[in-house]
Amino acid sequence: MKELLKLYENKEPEIVFNWKDSETEAEGWTVINSLRGGAAGGGTRMRQGLDQNEVLSLAKTMEVKFTVSGPPIGGAKSGINFDPADPRKKGVLERWYKAVSPLLKSYYGTGGDLNVDEINEVIPITEDCGVWHPQEGVFNGHFQPTEADKINRIGQLRQGVIKVLENTHFSPDVTRKYTVADMITGYGVAEAVHHYYSIYGGDIEGKKAIVQGFGNVGSAAAYYLAQMGAKIVGIIDRAGGLINEEGFSFEEIKEMFLNKKGNTLSHKDMISFEEINEKIWKLDAEIFAPCAASRLISKDQITSLIDRKLEVISCGANVPFADKEIFFGPIMEYTDERVSLIPDFISNCGMARVFAYFMERRVQMTDEAIFNDTSMTIKNAIQNTFDNNSSKTNISKTAFEVALKQLV
């Protein structure tokens, strides 16, 4: 696996597109790791201090993810080094997408990512640049459909991602109009835990869980884990957190989800970040869902959880461990050798899978069909890993080996 990983990490990307904004200090990159299958896909992010290397590592991560989610295309990513809180953001995005639109028409598909909203920014701005849909390049490069077929599938994509959830099993509150895009990634993180226990043995009911991050992914993961009968004993978010060693009830977790302030946890009993960060790693929990930013978890923190009751980690964040390596650094390897670590490209593939699902010909557009498709994709990936290595350790190592054999 390490030899395959080294080959894959060191391979130069096929295309690097570099842009410097004429009106601000913004600089952007689209890195296309490969045009496997004739196209490449990956979202657009914006943050101050972002560089080309970050975009490259994310493009390589996307390519591994596509081996699970489909379609069988190359990985790509776009990144803009600019402060997303700057009032000039909209103009920067408009000029960026205009510059990159020839790629989006031909062989590159994009979407939302960190600080760039799919529905309110990516779709309307790319439309103004003459792109039918941000995924049009994947259709043209990979699927090469007839014009009529392309119209049908782009229609599915447009409707599907912004589809308002109507089924009370999937939506915390149908009157609040939560969409597929709001909930699917966190749902996948929870489903990965559910399928882990059904395949490797055990029952999620009554297991204690810790969730790191309470944004879109973490709050949805907590909601669905609690719905399955897991007991959330600790939540750590950037502003603070909560602990209940007996576990919060499903109703309490649902209330926390509905009472979020924007994308952060809000609760009258919240303790400070310093206090929660001191206490949460000393809790007894079988399940850990890291769903905050990348590269946060230290070796000491994860060791503390492993030394207690930890059984399984389902990664909502890409590369949650504080390693500098793109994929498989020493903290991740240390963790993988001691507990069941479901890698990010399986557990958080929900949104990528939704895109792949809607690109297929005439799919069912019900909540059940969309969510069950993501669930089955994750189940199949975990089953495939189990079939190659039935041990409860080295799951990530095995999953990477399975994926990289398709890419190297």
Could you give the topology of this structure?
Elements (H helix, E strand, L loop, with lengths): L1 H9 L4 E6 L6 E6 L7 E2 L2 E4 L4 H18 L4 E8 L7 H18 L1 E2 L8 H11 L7 H8 L3 H15 L18 H21 L7 E5 L3 H12 L3 E7 L2 E9 L1 H9 L14 H7 L7 E4 L8 H8 L5 E3 L15 H7 L3 E3 L1 H4 L2 H10 L7 H22 L6 H13 L1
Parallel strand pairs: 3-5, 3-6, 4-5, 7-8, 7-10, 10-11, 11-12
Antiparallel strand pairs: 1-2, 2-5, 8-9
Helix pairs in contact: 2-14, 2-16, 3-4, 3-5, 6-14, 7-8, 7-15, 8-9, 14-15, 15-16
What attributes characterize this protein structure?
six-stranded mixed beta sheet; globular; 16 helices; 408 residues; 47% helix; alpha/beta; 12 strands
Give a verbal description of the structure.
With 408 residues, the chain is α/β, with parallel strands linked by helices. It is 47% helix and 14% strand. The protein has 16 helices and 12 strands. It has helices at residues 2-10, 52-69, 89-106, 118-128, 136-143, 147-161, 180-200, 216-227, 250-258, 273-279, 299-306, 330-336, 344-347, 350-359, 367-388, 395-407; strands spanning 15-20, 27-32, 40-41, 44-47, 74-81, 108-109, 208-212, 231-237, 240-248, 287-290, 312-314, 340-342. Strands 1, 2, 3, 4, 5 and 6 form a 6-stranded mixed beta sheet that branches. It is globular and about 55 Å long. The protein starts with a helix and ends with a helix. The model has no long low-confidence stretch (mean pLDDT 96). InterPro entries: Aminoacid_DH-like_N_sf, Glu/Leu/Phe/Val/Trp_DH, Glu/Leu/Phe/Val/Trp_DH_C, Glu/Leu/Phe/Val/Trp_DH_dimer, NAD(P)-bd_dom_sf. Residues 181-408 form the Glutamate/phenylalanine/leucine/valine/L-tryptophan dehydrogenase C-terminal domain. Pfam families: ELFV_dehydrog, ELFV_dehydrog_N. One of its GO terms (molecular function) is glutamate dehydrogenase (NAD+) activity. This is Amino acid dehydrogenase.
